[in-house]
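new request in #modeling-help
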Amino acid sequence: MTSTVLTVATMGEAARAVAQGATFFGGGTIVMRDVNAGTAAASIVRTTDPSLKDIRISGDTVTLGAGVTMASVLANRDLEFLHPVARLVGGPQIRNMGTVGGNLFAPHPYGDFAVALLALGARVVMAGQGGARPIDDLLRDRSRSPGLVAAIEFARPRPGTFGFLKVSRIKPKGVSVLSVSALLPREGGRIRGARVAWGAMGAGPQRGSSAERALEGQSLNAETIGRAAATAAEGLNPATDAIATDWYRREVAGVHLKRMLEQMERG
Amino acid sequence: MIEFRKEFFADERDDDLNEIGKPTRRQDILGHVTGRSPFFDDHQFDGLLHLRCVRSPHHHARIRRVDTSQAEKMPGVVRVLTGKDVPTNLNTLLSLLDFGIDDEPILSDKKVAYRGEPVAAVIAATEAQARAAVKAVRVDWEVLPHVLDVEEAIKPGAPKVLDIYPNNKFIYHGKYDHQKLRFGDVEAAFASADHIVEGRYQMSPIEQAPIETCGAIAAPEQNDRYVCYTSTQALFFSLGTAAKVLQTPSSKLHFVGGTVGGGFGGKVDSIHEPLAILGAMLTGRPVKYAWDREEEMQVGAPRGAERWYIKDAVNRDGRITARKFIGYFDSGAYTRLSSYAIIKGVGHLPGPYTIPNVYADVYCVYTNRTPATAMRGFGITGVDFAIETHMDKVAETVGLNPIELRILNSYRDGDMKAHRREAKNCALVECCQVVAEKAGITLSAEARAATSLTGGGGERARIPNYTATDQNGRVEGFDTGSYARKSGSGPAAATAQPSTAQPARAPQPGSQPASRPASASRPEQAPPRADPPAKPPESRPAASRSGAMRFSSLSGFRRR
Amino acid sequence: MMAKTPVNFTLNGNDRAAFAEDGQNLLEFLRRGVGDMSPKYGCGQGTCGACTVLVDGETHLSCLVLAETVDGKEVRTASGLSSPALDPLQTAFMEHFAAQCGYCTPGMLVSARALLDRNPRPSREEVIEAISGNLCRCTGYEPIIQAILAVAEGRARA
């Protein structure tokens, strides 16, 4: 199958093409693989709309255009808490090309930036629609043509409340065995509104509810961390692939959750 | 940082080295850093066509029907090839070298024996069009049971991978279903040993994964010749194989190679050239046949899997008095060079150690895995891993430091090796001593005083008075004089042949190896050939022959 | 009939124009369309880095770039490094045996050049990160790291 690419000037036009079944081309790091293999859709749309690459920070609210690249995140001082995440997406070339919006649709085992956004409780703004929806909904619906993501917004986390860990066999650039991220806001020393997200532990980025339950209302100390680690893999259904087996991922989930939480505890 | 230990064997050489130890520059590196080194794909051709293969998704299946009619009508498609279009539809490397019977079709038309095996080739104007047309070829498969493990494959009732060989084992010397090594009497040594140490070692197939995938571009040149740029590591293997497959004199083929983007052994028995050249012959245009990365990983021949069982008889003091090997090489679905790998491997046993009783049975086993080939230390590396791990196990059993154990058992100059050659220029003792030094391990006085030049020969130079032999694994119906022939009904019965192509034959005495008269440049019909004088199929050729003598005598396939 | 898009761009400082086919990636466009054979095909999936080029000064995997998107942009490949004198990185690679088969070398040089343009004095970790998107099966990477550090530390001849 050879693909035809349509370039349009605005996100609105792109959204209309996507609604008619075209595949959206962001940075190309996912879609071009399919084009090269002859398995891409016949119709592809991309846009030169500059709003796609905007980074806006207003008070504590961050809005990233869906076309913001990992490299742009790394170049922005105000997004320093996301640098440990962006730095581990692909290699340097991929970071110059791959976008935060594209990462939301990256198939297993990719999508580590989306894992961090899920932990942060981000909301996504769809092109041609008003308002924003929780990223959880988008990730759940992502294989059912949900439309075109225009921007992603989230609150900048308080220092020490956000953590991220990616596990790969090869470093610094390697595909995930798993990734895990957490947002642990504190109120009076106790965790309130815990969010934990896993990558490469199922069909896509997903919440870790058993870990959240173990953490909610507790102080972040060794005992809490131990309990969270013990039940970490509950409710997760990882796959076996060329990187790791389901058994292995289940075995080490708690180990890596513990390491990430200990990192956060140390501050 | 290179450290020269010139004190070792100092009186054996003049220390007037002109190149070693001095800075130099690779002769090709200027091309590499300027991007000018010409890999096979770095050549422009007007009207270049792209060839991609239709491949089996099954490990093992019979082909009921290949329907290329839809594919032929697709945009950009110039030609679709199947087995009947290939003049000699066999990988002829084995008969070229007299290492075995050609058993692998270029484009399979009766059955497939590994996932990825090609059954048709689409030639189109662009790679994308070739990909699309490949998907439109419809194949009716009859899926067969498959086997993926060497020991499962040799059990009675296992799926039969190749029709030629009974029980999925290559036949050595026309006599046995394995390669034997016999030196002394291991069973007697086991009976009187202080310790018996056993181990089982194995290795999965290893993909060479060069950054450049395998491929070739062929194009018509002037005077009815074809040029072929190829990634092969073995230009003359590839040239000879292409000449035999295409029934074309090698003088009609102009092969250009030499710049290989990583081979590591994975490009020594390349098979792209015949199809690329055939495509150029049939279309009159340049044709590129190159693997994409997925094909390189799945279809490209890996280093074959191996499994080894080692059993040692060991004295209390750590001396190994007997070593028995049972080894299985996973050749995958076809022989390729695995039969040769085992000859190399067996010549290496029992490792760099003087052991007075040695026994080895090594099997070349067919499974429904991707056919294997060479990689770095072909035939040796896997068994060396097994041997060295086993040495550590022996050391642990007798309570000796692993380096001490090795120095104790190391061969020395003048020792008789298990295949009845004298050990010369040994250096394991000295290597062990330097390793101990670097690792901060203190050796015993004896180990520190040992040298490769002392302590060998004498008693250790003798071939044992008695060597236990056997007729285990004896097989009938194979010719001992030539691997390229099966005795009795001849090669036509040994391999499945497409109807229009001529079967591969070993060169007859006095005939030219694999060359064809000049008229045979249009291979749509097999040209008439002048057969050598008719001989009854059972007769053996006379001992001398032209062509591929050197390799087979080196390997020991031919009797001296 | 293949639709073709005109692409006007600069290649290694020179104005070029050629037609890109539908869905054609920049690697194929540069090699077959324009005739620059220095970027190489290793995977077509963005994992090996042999196709690395600079687009407007930033490293990109040309196998994943849609050729028509470089219209109006500046593309630099390994063959543009010598102009005509060798880039210090090229000399350093030769002196440090940083190439064996040579297939990953153009991509490595482009990544190394981009690093030193942005950060003339990288640490060893920064060098490793800069080439982490370029696979090599021959050298084991250490000679490449040494060659780049030699240039960074001013030890290589210009």
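bot summary: Chain A has a mean pLDDT of 96.
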